Amino acid sequence: MSGEIVREWHFWLVSIATGAFMAFVYDVLRLFRRLVRHGRLAVDLEDILYWTACFALSFTLLYYGNNGVIRFAAVLGAAVGMLFYVVTAGRFFVRVSYLIIDKTIGSLLRLIARIFRFLRRLLRPVRRFVVTIYHKLRRFFRILFEKMRLTCAAKRHKIKLYGHAGLSDKEEETPDVRKKGKEKTRRTKDKTKNTRVSPSKK
Questions:
Q1: Who has the most CB within 10 Å: 42, 43, 48, 58?
Q2: What pTM does this model have?
Q3: Where along the chain do its domains lie?
Q4: pLDDT at 193
Q5: d(Cα 104, Cα 107) in Å, to the nearest integer?
Q6: Distance CA 116, CA 105 (A)
Q7: Between these two residues, 185 and 111, which has the higher pLDDT value?
């Protein structure tokens, strides 16, 4: 058998393996979609990425195996590989893998979720108590700070009043004010002298 025929058989087998691998990757993607909920946009994006990767893989196969020339044998080999996988392992891969993951990891995750729900239900009174204490302390400190602020404001106001009173006392002690006070006392004395009746007139 010549080397050209051997090389063609190798290329054919690689094409079949590539097709089977593509089908297996898509089944893994389907399994992931069954385990994790997806929206329509996420599904579309995953399909675009999947077919982009398949195109890159096919181009690499043709580039290194057939110098970039697209041949019917390569396309047929990929199709045969996909069909072979779907008929054999693809029939039960997703279903069996989902059951195994659901019974092992899924059961463990559900058990952890139940434990967390039980603990949250158990700690709910403690949480309410802590929240109540927090609100009471917050209200207490807010009232305390408000009283301290009002007390400080009242003290500053009293200091200002005393300062104004001191200035008025100083103004009263000026010479002009003293002079006016002396004149008032002199006038009052003169008035008392004029109103006083002498003993000879009596």
A1: 58
A2: 0.54
A3: 3-91, 124-182
A4: 56
A5: 5
A6: 17
A7: 111
